[in-house]
Amino acid sequence: MKTKDIFDVFGIAPSTLSDWSKEDNKKHTLAKLLKNMSIDEVKHILSKQPKTQSKPVMLLSTVNCSIGNKKKHFTLTSLKNLFYKKEPLDVYDIYALKTIKNEALEEEIVDFRNYYRISPKRIETVLASL
Prior knowledge:
- By secondary structure, the chain is mostly helical.
- About 60% of the residues lie in helices and about 0% in strands.
């Protein structure tokens, strides 16, 4: 790319790019990369949508919607921790797991499991234990 293109796309001033282009500068390699890329390559890279995975809030909503006391509502983290608890489950924990087992859609469970990387076997074991 030309210096003007680099300024237009990234806002890097020509004087800054000139400093970066000196071999003793830490950003010399970056300046070299920018100068050797075509404007089309840069536009293609910048046009790609990042693949972000949204948090699986549907399962959380399913669990919390029937718990009247908002102080007892679960967070995503506390819901995840239900599948790893070593100590005995309290009434709300059991209620949440039964709600997941009986009311949650398979898609909600799969999204939650994939987001938190919980093994299907662990979820199946915990829900089967009720």
